[in-house]
UniProtKB/TrEMBL annotation, chains A, B:
It is found in: Cytoplasm. PANTHER family: ARGININE BIOSYNTHESIS BIFUNCTIONAL PROTEIN ARGJ, ARGININE BIOSYNTHESIS BIFUNCTIONAL PROTEIN ARGJ, MITOCHONDRIAL. Signal peptide: none annotated. The keyword Signal does not apply. This is Arginine biosynthesis bifunctional protein ArgJ. The record marks 118-119 as: Involved in the stabilization of negative charge on the oxyanion by the formation of the oxyanion hole. The gene is argJ.
Amino acid sequence: MSVTAAKGFQAAGIAAGIKQNGNPDLALVVNTGPRLAAAGVFTSNRVKAAPVLWSEQVLKGGEVSAVVLNSGGANACTGPQGFQDTHATAEKAAASLNAAGRDETGGHGAGTVAVASTGLIGTLLPMDKLLPGVDAAVAQLDVHGGEKAAIAIKTTDTVHKTSVVSKDGWTVGGMAKGAGMLAPGLATMLVVLTTDADLNAATLDRALRDATRQTFDRVDSDGCMSTNDTVLLLASGASRLAPEYGEFAEAVRAVCDDLARQLIGDAEGASKDIRIEVVNAASEDDAVEVGRSIARNNLLKCAIHGEDPNWGRVLSAIGTTKAAFDPDRLNVAINDVWVCKDGSVGEDRDLVDMRYREVRITADLAAGTAGPVVIWANDLTAEYVHENSAYSS
Amino acid sequence: MSVTAAKGFQAAGIAAGIKQNGNPDLALVVNTGPRLAAAGVFTSNRVKAAPVLWSEQVLKGGEVSAVVLNSGGANACTGPQGFQDTHATAEKAAASLNAAGRDETGGHGAGTVAVASTGLIGTLLPMDKLLPGVDAAVAQLDVHGGEKAAIAIKTTDTVHKTSVVSKDGWTVGGMAKGAGMLAPGLATMLVVLTTDADLNAATLDRALRDATRQTFDRVDSDGCMSTNDTVLLLASGASRLAPEYGEFAEAVRAVCDDLARQLIGDAEGASKDIRIEVVNAASEDDAVEVGRSIARNNLLKCAIHGEDPNWGRVLSAIGTTKAAFDPDRLNVAINDVWVCKDGSVGEDRDLVDMRYREVRITADLAAGTAGPVVIWANDLTAEYVHENSAYSS
């Protein structure tokens, strides 16, 4: 399933030895056509990893024949050598795929091979392991290889993440990795989506941006923005069907939404998934700003961890934004109990039951009709601290 | 010492019963003149506690005769009743001070009594305890009462914080409370500074704003902005000396800087004080934005806790800002080891010794001549999570 649920794709996932523990660390996704249309969305962090800089260039052409993804190293902040390594990876993949004669599209050029990396920032990749790994991955390409590819891109993920939506004769499927450094723009995530719908690059781009804006961009596990975020959508056209835009966009959004929820559910050290819904905002931008401010408030995240409905911390987070609101008209519910009404004490906070993993915070700005906007976050735990205080050691 | 180091001030600190554990919780600072000049800086959070709304009005007159401060409750998000309670506190203090005949300034009016509160948001203060407490504090006013006042405003503070600078015949002294929810604009802090210099309210205001901008506004323990932050500077004129502006402003800045460092040193659950210095920025605003972004990066804060010089997280934090810089020219030092040069791998990270409480991060933006700007932050620890997951329970 995963990236091979749609027709016209093959994938592989192998252990190339990039990770010292011998776990799978190299994935390859190949579009076997007949079409090679593609779109991509990348981190808005201004410090971009070499593979992001490379893949942004590839996507400008609107065609992606293959994607090479590695875990075990981010290849970020690695200077000219890092960029050369990404380039060499793309060249190697193109040469190896051509040698294997594995496509229907008239030969791969490095200029249509996207590259994505994830792992520690600031160390060069072991190219003596990675390049032979590309050959090994090409040799193992399979129309059922999606699951193995999804496993090979895991870093601190405890589970691999895949999702598929099938419609009348066409399919959108995908895989994701991400468990920390999750914040809008995007999260520390690598995502590859594939479809056999027969659509051009411009349509894919529009559907992908619509979807990520409402899904991955609204996942804010820990407020930290990565250097490597990459979301790709590849279309093979193998179904020979061109669905209507609305139907296709909804399928892409559904797959992204499912994967985004899986990222939050597997966030490093988290014990709670926090669903923040902002309603009655003056604008969607206001609602997003308020939702993110709540999502990033460390004191609130600690309180949620402690199952403490400390709504004052929600108000203090709202108060740091530029959104339109009157402090004396704010209402806040936690798990549907309106603990704050008109900016002051509301229903009895002891009525709030916070035993379950999902916690719902509703912020009513009483300032307009925009929303609801939903932002997903996680609590802050000692396990998060532990996991992230020892990551690179 | 503390607020009674300068001539013309009396203070008291008592246990009024606002805190259930019987610890001191009510402080009173009285300016006995001959002058009543004052300036104040308040939280920029748009959700402001009742005492902040009240004291902002008081300060518009440029005169403060007395300050009532309580711990054990923030009186924030408490609606009209909360504001009435603050008003009643000021009225009570004025009446009690007048009845005691304790001033040289012709009688106290409630309109010159500032009020400050700290503690849990969203609960009304126990006025049946607080108002008799004001009488008790007036009865205990003393020219050596500064220490007791500083103790009475503690919440989760493990130590009380005071600082004094004495010059040729005049003095600036002060007290502060704050241990969490520390972020610019300001920190969750209550600060009262006093001086016996003979200066008018406009001069005090200028000196106070210059000082807070460079000190309290650059303390960012946990990125969370409070509803109650208040910094007051009261002048009695009792020295009959009017120092030059530059000399006076430097004394105020030195006291604020000392108190700000004490806040960081006592931050909830922290094991490291992180000194972030941004140099070679295009502007001071850029330097502050970059410093704050680094200060608030949870993953970096965890890494520092783990004594892990994970400089990639510094770069990813810089990359989220709008400051002018070229990613390929950024340099970062941790404890003076330049682990990142020209946006890539620099000196050996194993050379970084992070055993001590103070950790220094230097971010060289190579974009101009502004700075250095120093932002102070803390690490993120399991103890911080523990302390803040159970605060209101």
